[in-house]
């Protein structure tokens, strides 16, 4: 049979439930909840309040003693429906999350409505809608039990059975497959009214309950439905499959409670999967904020623990070391400071009632934040909602601007101001709002104009079938949601281009899902405007983004697609058609939402003309006398008439077998609740579960063993996350093939590296805060480190030699072995902590912990340090509970092992981030062993340059030839200029190499030289520019693993020949020389093809080993005639002779053509400039400078062409020389021409003193 009209086969509500006090079993303490309360009460003795002193207007909140009685599910109808099994524990807990509440006649007893959500193990959801009200307690036993308890605990304010009437909370609830809170609230309020009003309702209560359970269908997609409550009609409507998914909570309330600025921050936290804790005394507010934030994420879906209302008995879930979005009910009197949260380093805490939000550090800005706030504010103002938020509105009080000085303090601290016209000057203090006001003025949006627009729209004489307020709510909802959805359609308009389709079948794709890259992040990010990067690079790492792309990969055709994906893709296509600009070129131009009107029209159409009307409630076949009840008490209903529905109802399709109905239900969920149809259920579900171990806690009465099991799941989850994160970071750093081959090349952008390291820091914080005994400070990791430092310093009393290594003891060592170079830095966890503690810029514990992790990563000591930290078992025992991750030995070992893999790559995550701090550097000059520098009389100097800065000239003591100095972070080191003043009798100095080490990170750089510095020796140079490379520490260290080869190496490299004099160089043949030039040019081309942030050192490619200078040196050395035995001839001599020839040729005006003239002019100009420089650089140094300048100005190939035809070449070169071979020279010129397209910027140290 067909199941085309799937939506018809599902009913509006699955169950009707009554919860409350079970008089037969009497008062049962709710153990877990009681325990939580007891702990709270002992923490703050003032927690206990008397019965009568209840906070007015507060829902079910009383002295600790009273809220700990178990509520029971007294009845539910029908007994069970096959497609949605009844979960007694969950429903009982969520209808009355804090158990039963008692009141006396002195307290307010207003009915309270709230909704909740139950997430099943397969990820599907059911919604609950509960109305809680108070009924008089008729059982004498319970009244006297209450009095006895009161006398035991409370000497004052006690409840007196003879004087007071005792009331207890009761709750009626609808469990429904879809969230229609407005309609359900009306149904329940009318049912309650029927019991409490003096006049009995027209029909027995059973008729109305039967009607809502069996005779009211869900409205089909894109249609509206009207059905009857006890006293009036109820209307609900559902969007079509082309519109945004169903959402029926009032978003305006969320904006009134929190304000646009806060909501945007909260929204950013949710998108980055930061732990979010909502806090309020109203259950419904918790639910509304949670559902609104997740609905605004369209097309993405929250993938982790989602518990908008956390029952008291599940408080230990706040310890969960995974991303979560949870709602915690506050007592109304408890202050935020008293709330002990296990994990705050990466927590977003939202105090809904106080219009206040605490954010984690380093939260990136949402792209185009200001324009976005402006666009949302315009929508809100049009509906008379203040963008700054106005908590008083949402409490349903008189609509006036509220302002209290205490609010002002929290609001100022928080960047939000209560909107009081009197205090507009305060707005100036708040930049965002001030800029916003300026924007509002500029765009001419004024409240008056907007209000006019509103009146105009309501005067269209539309006969609206639902009340005005409700229509307004729908209109505001859809407008705000469209504005949010439009942000994502603009940001990800071309996302499909970057989806990496797997080349294997689904099964094998699935089994390797963890390792697969499903989205080309680097290319996507390189297209984005710079300001978007901090947010986007983190967002692309989230589980929700991965799941979104997974579902895209799994749905090849439109039929297959999840509803959200289908809607999103159709919008993206629309944008593509409208945008004539090339879709891949991103601009940061802000484009506002254009399809608000059509979305709004769709809703208006549905409420003007109602599509379906359900059957009216009618008398049921009940026995005489059934259905009676006592006024003021909600009765248990007649279960026999409510246990089954009508047999012949045309839409109920009773004949359809159960599995068909289940399928229909899933299909219809797929439209609006993001569930998937059968064949993809398994895939998507697994994809979702990859990063999440637990979606929602099992809501049952939790025994210690269940809690232990949950914690165990967390421990496994953390380990898995650690494995995936370390792998992901290594893959990013080395590239895929490299990881498989065991080596790699640096290829990771700064932004992306920062993102990955930030998420690693977050993971470490979560691990360290799992199972903490007592929380101290916001960072659990730093707190543990401080404890360790304290205990070690007690035992060590005074650690010796913390300063940089001295200058004296090194002389002894040099005599024995100059090759030993620098003594290794002592590995010390405490010393690394001290380095961080000395950095004044870092103010917070979380910041210090992150800096320490970055430093340890850079030093390749993270695993080792943490192992050391955890080896203090006594301390770990003192700080952590038995079930904590850090006390699970096997998992801990595996975790440290995963971190060990970071030693395989070079990170500069500390050096590159803390660019302004002072760092001590140690410089050591190693003269040649063969010709010891002991007789050397001149005064040497060095100048060290890095990617961030250079030091200026530093004098080196000539006897030790080493210094330690402190200066602002130089970044990665690139060159050392060194020389001497040529003073004294023996001013000749043969230097083997120079070592420079960063004394904080331990990175040591070696700058090879192997040449003389001195007049009349080698090329007569008194100063040289040396190019350095990072030295790898020896592998003696047992914790070190394999390491990346030096940064710019490529496979076909020739061996380096260390030379004392230029003549001893071995001769390379022309093939090898060509290869050398090719490799050098190739390195430069590759350099420029990388994104800017990934590029290594260009200086190294020009002047380093096998760089361009070296390669051209080989070209000119080949076949060079050496006239006399003892006189060295340098390439520079040949170039100078050629210059003389060209200058005389110019004067003789022997000019082949104009081109030739220009080339000659340039060549001679550069030669003169270099020769006339005040620096004492030798002939090879001058050649190096000429090559660098020629490369910069794209002149090298012209000069080679000039020199080939120069008569001097004939004189100075053998006939077999490469430079005389036309075809070889032509190919050399062609290769050099490829440099023309690059903009080469030279480091200052290479061209000092040249004014061209």
TrEMBL record:
It comes from the Eukaryota. InterPro entries: cDENN_dom (IPR001194), dDENN_dom (IPR005112), DEN5A/B (IPR047278), DENN_C (IPR043153), PLAT/LH2_dom (IPR001024), PLAT/LH2_dom_sf (IPR036392), PLAT_RAB6IP1 (IPR047277), RUN1_DENND5A (IPR047294). Residues 751-915, 1099-1247 form the RUN domain. Gene3D superfamilies: 1.20.58.900, 3.30.450.200, 3.40.50.11500, PLAT/LH2 domain. Belongs to the RAB6IP1 family. One of its GO terms (cellular component) is cytosol. It is found in: Membrane. The keyword Membrane applies. Residues 53-562 form the UDENN domain. PANTHER family: DENN DOMAIN-CONTAINING PROTEIN 5A (PTHR46070:SF2), PINSTRIPE, ISOFORM A (PTHR46070). The keyword Transmembrane does not apply. Transmembrane segments: none annotated. This is DENN domain containing 5A. GO terms for molecular function: guanyl-nucleotide exchange factor activity; small GTPase binding.
